[in-house]
Write a structure and sequence with these properties.
- The protein has 276 residues and is α+β, with helices and mostly antiparallel strands.
- It has one domain: Jelly Rolls.
- The chain contains 5 helices and 14 strands.
- The chain is globular and about 45 Å long.
């Protein structure tokens, strides 16, 4: 049985909090791309330990820590080769998993992305390389705005909503992870002020808001060594029933033992979960 370990000096790239709030980036206006690059370059790199939870997974739960690892083998995944085949196999299985672990009566998929490149010059949603920057996929405002975009009818949103709405990200390896594993920031070590809203406007009706993250000495980073396709991590990117929305920061990190390995292969699936 593998023994859990600690990577003593993992580099995490945070937003440089000394820069203060991030102005709204309106990409319909000239000069915004340069402003975007300015904020991307305002970083604070920190060398801190990241702890392996192997053989201790049951200590970390979705409700307490904001993330949870599950044993969830999916029949047919090992035989899927193209992105279309992978998605056709994983879509229903992922919906079923989220319903099971959250108790949701309805889920609505937002997006999915396969990452299979070590480096990629494409930006934002088109990038297929690991995200080596501490971030959240949404802020509370960003999640609720996305809900309006996905479910446009206010009456339908009310019907779906029930008592609680979540945005769930299911991150699953497509091959055993060596290079660029995904680390989760334990929500119990996060304060609301650690997350800085980063709003990007693409048209009058289309905007998104993710979270940049400031470093805190209280942060505790965790990952699962040699994570397999049967071991997805499910984590919250919004929860209407929890303080500050429980939008859990996460990041890929470099483990120097595996620098020569092939590019990481993984898929992330984001969805709304509606709980009555």
């Amino acid at each position: 049985m593998p023994v859990s370990r600690t990577v003593p000096q993992a580099k995490f790239t945070y937003y440089d909090g000394n820069g203060g709030p991030i102005e709204v980036l309106d990409f319909t206006k000239a000069g915004t791309e340069e402003k975007f690059e300015h904020y991307q370059n305002m970083v604070h790199e920190v060398l801190i330990p990241v702890h392996d939870v192997r053989n201790k997974q049951d200590q970390y739960t979705l409700d307490k820590n904001g993330f949870q690892y599950f044993h969830d083998p999916v029949a047919g995944l090992q035989d899927a080769n193209t992105e279309e085949e992978i998605w056709n196999v994983l879509r229903p299985a992922t919906e079923d998993l989220v319903k099971k672990v959250t108790g949701a009566h309805k889920v609505v998929i937002l997006t999915h992305r396969i990452r299979n490149l070590a480096e990629d010059s494409n930006k934002r949603a088109d990038n297929k390389a690991p995200a080596h920057r501490v971030h959240t996929d949404f802020t509370c405002a960003g999640a609720l705005n996305q809900l309006k975009n996905i479910v446009r009818d206010p009456a339908e949103r009310t019907t779906l909503g029930g008592d609680r709405i979540m945005v769930i990200n299911v991150w699953r390896p497509l091959k055993v992870i060596k290079r660029d594993p995904l680390a989760m920031l334990d929500w119990e070590t996060v304060q609301p002020g650690d997350i800085i809203p980063n709003r990007m406007v693409f048209s009058e009706q289309n905007w998104s808001e993710m979270g940049m993250v400031k470093h805190s000495s209280q942060h505790e980073w965790l990952y699962l060594e040699s994570q397999t396709p049967e071991e997805p991590v499910v984590f919250k990117q919004y929860d209407s029933g929890v303080r500050a929305g429980m939008t859990v920061p996460h990041s890929a990190f470099v483990d120097s033992r595996w620098l020569g390995e092939d590019a990481r292969q993984s898929i992330e699936v984001k969805m709304f979960a509606f709980i009555k």
